[in-house]
Amino acid sequence: MLLIAVISTCLTLGVLGFDQNRSDNIAIYWGQNSYGASFPNASGSQQNLGIYCQDSNINTIPIAFVDVFFGTGGVPVINLADSCQNATFPGTSLLNCGGLSGAISTCQENGIIVTISLGGGSSTVGFSSDSEAESFAETIWNTFLGGQSDTRPFGSAILDGVDLDIENGSPVGYTAFVNRIRVLSRDSVKKYYISAAPQCFFPDAYLGDTLNAVGFDMLYVQFYNNPECGLEHFNDPSIWNFDIWDSWAKQSPNPNIKIYIGAPASEYAAGTGYVSAPILGDIAAQTQHTFPSFGGRDVVGYVSGLR
Ligand SMILES: *[C@@H]1O[C@H](CO)[C@@H](O)[C@H](O)[C@H]1NC(C)=O
Ligand SMILES: *[C@@H]1O[C@H](CO)[C@@H](O)[C@H](O)[C@H]1NC(C)=O
Ligand SMILES: *[C@@H]1O[C@H](CO)[C@@H](O)[C@H](O)[C@H]1NC(C)=O
C-alpha cells in the first residue's frame, strides 16, 4: 500500500531494472514479513518473491537475512520467516530454499538485482579475526554468489551481491570480508554489488571503519528506529543528517557511491521513522535535487499491492 502511493508521487517513472547511477532506485528488503508476522490475518503480508520480480518499479531486492554466520557445522543460517520453512541441508541449520531459484531468475531477467543481506536486528554475527572474515567471505561466495557448494539455499541461482546489515557483534573483520569478496569476484563478467545498511547515526558503530576503508556500491542508510537522525525529523536540519552522509560519500573510497533513504514500509515495520507515503515521496524528490549522492529509497517490512 505504501509503495503504491510512493510511486504515484515519484517524479520519474518507468525505470527498467537497476542502474546504479540513477537517483530513483527503489530497493525492498524481502524475507522478514514483519507486518504479516504481527498481523497474520490482515491483508498486507509479504507476498511471494515472484510477485515483486514482476514489478518494474522495483530495482533491487536484498533477501533478508543470513542471521547467523557460524551455525551447526560451521555453516551459515538463513531466516526468511514464513517464506521458506523447508528442510535444512544435512548436518547444518541452513534451509534449502531451492524453490526460490525460479523467482530469483525472473527478477534478474527483468533487470532487478537480488542480493543476500547479512545480519539484521536479531542476529548472531561477527568475526574474531580478519582471517576468519576472509574465510567467511569464501563461504558466502560459494553459498550464494559465483562459487560452488553442495549447500546452496537458492539452488542454481547466482545472486548479484552481498549486503551488510550489521547490528550486533563487533566491527572486527568486515574490511577484510569486503576485500575478499572483491578479489573473488574480480575476474567475473557478472557485476557483483556490495552494499551496507548502516544506522543513520554517523559514524556507524559496526561498519564505520569499513566504510572508510573500502568502496561500497550503495548504502541503504537506516533513517528509522533512530530518533537522533531519523526520517521523522526531515524538517529539522539539525537532526536529519543526510547532508553528513552526502559529504562523507564524496570523499569516501568510492566517490560514486549512492546513498539511499531507508524507511519502514509501514508504521508497524519499525518503532520510529515511519512517514506517510506522500511525505516519503516528497522527501525523496527534495533529496534527489539537493544531494548528488542520493540513489533512491529502500523500504523494509511488508509491501503489498504492487500492481
Ligand atoms: C556510473 O557513473 C560512473 C561515474 O561517472 C561511471 O564510471 C560508470 O561507468 C557509470 N556506471 C554505469 C552503469 O553507467
Ligand atoms: C485469524 O483467522 C483465523 C481463521 O479464520 C481465526 O481462527 C483467528 O481467530 C484469527 N485471528 C485473529 C487474531 O483475528
Ligand atoms: C519447499 O519444498 C517444496 C517441496 O520440495 C518445494 O515445492 C518448495 O518450492 C520449497 N520452497 C522453497 C521456498 O524452496
Fold and architecture overview:
With 307 residues, the chain is α/β, with parallel strands linked by helices. It contains nine helices and nine strands. A nine-stranded mixed β-sheet has the order 1-9-8-7-6-5-4-2-3. Helix 1 (2-9) packs across helix 9 and helix 5 (130-144) packs across helix 6. Mean pLDDT is 88; it is low at 1-15 and 303-307. Bound molecules: 2-acetamido-2-deoxy-beta-D-glucopyranose (NAG) (3 copies). One 2-acetamido-2-deoxy-beta-D-glucopyranose is lined by residues 84, 86, 97-100.
Report the end-to-end length measured between terminal Cα atoms.
10 Å
Shape: globular
- Helix-residue proportion: 25-40%
- Could you tell me the strand content as a percent range? 15-25%
Characterize the main sheet. 9 strands, mixed
Bound molecules: 2-acetamido-2-deoxy-beta-D-glucopyranose
Secondary-structure element order, N to C: HEHHEEHEHEHEHEHEHE
Class based on secondary structure composition and strand pairing? alpha/beta
- How many extended strands? 9
Roughly how many Å is the radius of gyration? Answer: 18 Å
As laid out across the biggest beta sheet, the strand order is: 1-9-8-7-6-5-4-2-3
Number of helices: 9
Give the mean pLDDT. Answer: 88
Identify low-pLDDT runs: 1-15, 303-307
Organism: Mycena venus
Catalytic activity: Random endo-hydrolysis of N-acetyl-beta-D-glucosaminide (1->4)-beta-linkages in chitin and chitodextrins
Protein name: chitinase
GO molecular function: endochitinase activity
